[in-house]
Amino acid sequence: xxxxxxxxxxxxxxxxxxxxxxxxxxxxxxxxxxxxxxxxxxxxxxxxxxxxxxxxxxxxxxxxxxxxxxxxxxxxxxxxxxxxxxxxxxxxxxxxxxxxxxxxxxxxxxxxxxxxxxxxxxxxxxxxxxxxxxxxxxxxxxxxxxxxxxxxxxxxxxxxxxxxxxxxxxxxxxxxxxxxxxxxxxxxxxxxxxxxxxxxxxxxxxxxxxxxxxxxxxxxxxxxxxxxxxxxxxxxxxxxxxxxxxxxxxxxxxxxxxxxxxxxxxxxxxxxxxxxxxxxxxxxxxxxxxxxxxxxxxxxxxxxxxxxxxxxxxxxxxxxxxxxxxxxxxxxxxxxxxxxxxxxxxxxxxxxx
Length: 353
What we know:
By secondary structure, the protein is mainly α. 75% of the residues lie in helices and 0% in strands. It is built from 16 helices and no strands. Helix 1 runs antiparallel to helix 2. The longest helix has 28 residues.
């Protein structure tokens, strides 16, 4: 009885904190994709806090099925949130919504019809294996994208947020699978609620200790204003480093090389990696290393596409010469910067004035 009371109190506190967090995120960063996804993730986590049940053996009541479906679909939101958090060029596509709908629908169908037919344990295993798959995708996205973030403060907070959420989600899924049908349900649920409350409180505290404008990508016009006077304020030493960096990019065209990283450029310049991050961020106004590289690559591609002597050169050749590894990322980066596709840009430049 005491454990059940503690469990309910912890769930209530967690839901209240998540709802406040969601409202705060939406109000403060509702115009930013990462902010909207963070608010949606908080709401989905509230649904999880309400419905999470370890060691369950009984079938789900019909009234709970939609909430459980929302909770299960939250793993897709988590994956999308990590993508938007670390990739400022990321945009939602129609098929992202389709994936979320498919996962939520599977969870609903699982609760209503599959579990009664095939057994609760098998149902729980299927749903949680699906959740683990999306958590792995989110962690992989974090690992591959983290190094390109140039804002030191938010790099630490972002990795903490994603790591804490992924660790809890992964452990919860493993416990759901391993303890399904066991007799330790009451203790396991209370411990799970306490861990969830601790994770939510820790993430909320971490988010309050960093400037929200640093944590979430700023709108393009804000970035442009922030970068305008960056070089003017450079110290003499930093200006020399900026000039050396620009020579690497302009004269040597190092952006053409395969797998160019912050470490590669830092070694070339003979400075620590953290200093180069700060230089590109604070002096040149970039918040993401890939954006910095792509602007140089796209500038070269634009010149090639506008050159009449290269009118017969395939777009893929121009893209790869500029440093892109395939056509898809080149097309997306080109359109994000210019507003048109490479082929459209070439036609526009070839048209008589």
